[in-house]
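Sat 14:20. Reprocessing the chain from the morning session after the first attempt stalled halfway. Input below, unchanged.
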Amino acid sequence: MILTVTLNTALDITYRVQTLKPHASHRVSEVTERPGGKGLNVARVLAALGHEVTVTGFAGGATGRVIQDRLTATPGVVDALLPVSGATRRTIAVVDEQTGDTTQLNEPGPAVTPAEWSAFQEAYEDLLASADAVALCGSLPPGVPVGAYAGLVRTARAAGVPVLLDTSGEPLRRGVAAAPTSSSRTPTNWPS
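Finished this time. Tokens:
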């Protein structure tokens, strides 16, 4: 099983408009919604390629319930998201059909409490016991320590599980310092 971690899940909403004009009202020609956040996107692709995938991270409020309902309907993906008291974020993409340009609006994630973060760390350790590999992906929601990925990398390495890291900024710098598995070589136990 491949474990993907998305600490800042999102409901990705895409609006298509004929032409996007600032300071104007628009008629939307199409709306799509799907579970999002880098790790959920990775999970969807891995499942489509026939891999067994478990997703973990946080989900809260009505938006979190929509994400979990849609994940349940995704073949090959097991939902192991943990509840948080705050509402999961939404990302809004507005696509200009004439030019193909996209305008992206990303809401902040829910504020994660210390108790919720602690519960996640315990669940993560349990999930690693049956993981062949783990992908740590995306931004951190408010309340999650900036060094969170570094700690998760160390936990995976201690469990003997290859770990990939896909984030940015200070969380990436600290996570890389914890020495995730190199993406330039494939470990012998990495699923093909």
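Residues 182-192 have pLDDT under 50 and may be disordered.
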